[in-house]
Specification:
This protein is α+β, with helices and mostly antiparallel strands and about 230 residues long. Helix content is about 25%, strand content about 25%. It has one domain. It is globular. This is DUF2971 domain-containing protein.
Length: about 230
């Protein structure tokens, strides 16, 4: 079960729509394994992932003067925190299609905040959180560090377009060895409300996705992209 924390913000409405854009291979892996892949936080392209803003870093550095292990622990903790990113949007995002699908054979999973919460399987032996990312000025603004997951709920303002909600797994209290990431158990029927097919995909691809989902035993609504709609002229 995910953990509620007063310092994590989430949209109040559990029906708030969220999206995950991904390629067919990752989507099939999700359905076959019934597990959601979580990326190790220090493996993200953004090198600031899980780090502190300058004002916070200066404070931590002072606290570390007589205790160098304090700062070292914060750095190594990034290897034990795993993230699954979702995009808040009432509608499909053309930009997200472009960024997160490599070709016209991509998919978008539509879900909601409430479904993400219900989809997490409670019998995991590590802490899990769901929260909305805060976008701040890393040169001026402060990130609290009274809780170890806070650095993972902040990103630079340059990434505001992502409108990100995160599932975060913290395995620091376990003996798990993490390479690139970790798969966590999820309830697929709760996780996925609808599937949208890439707007530039061919008809054969749409039929293939429908057939694969059906053969794997899932009754999931599959839609063509709204960006594919015929022009009215």
């Amino acid at each position: 079960m995910y953990i509620i924390n007063d310092n994590i913000k989430l949209p109040e409405n559990p029906d708030t729509i969220v999206w995950k854009y991904l390629d067919l291979s990752k989507f099939l892996d999700l359905l076959l394994s019934k597990q959601l892949f979580m990326s190790r936080s220090d493996k993200f392209e953004d090198q600031y992932e899980g780090t502190f803003s300058e004002p916070t870093y200066e404070e931590i550095k002072k606290l570390s003067e007589n205790n160098p292990e304090f700062l070292a622990y914060y750095k190594s903790h990034r290897e034990k925190v795993l993230v699954s990113s979702w995009h808040i949007n009432e509608y499909e995002s053309y930009a997200m299609w472009q960024i997160f699908t490599q070709n016209s054979e991509g998919l978008a999973i539509q879900s909601t905040i409430g479904r993400l919460q219900e989809a997490l399987v409670p019998e995991q032996n590590f802490k899990q959180y769901i929260g909305e990312v805060n976008y701040i000025d890393y040169k001026k603004e402060y990130i609290p560090f009274d809780n170890m997951f806070f650095p993972f709920m902040f990103k630079r303002k340059s990434f505001q377009y992502e409108r990100e909600v995160r599932i975060i797994s913290d395995v620091s209290d376990t003996d798990l060895k993490i390479n690139d990431g970790l798969k966590i158990d999820v309830d697929i029927n709760q996780l996925i409300e609808k599937i949208y097919i890439h707007p530039k995909s061919e008809n054969w691809y749409k039929k293939l996705v429908i057939e694969l989902v059906s053969k794997l035993g899932f009754d999931i609504e599959i839609e063509k992209s709204d960006l594919e709609s015929d022009i009215l002229i």
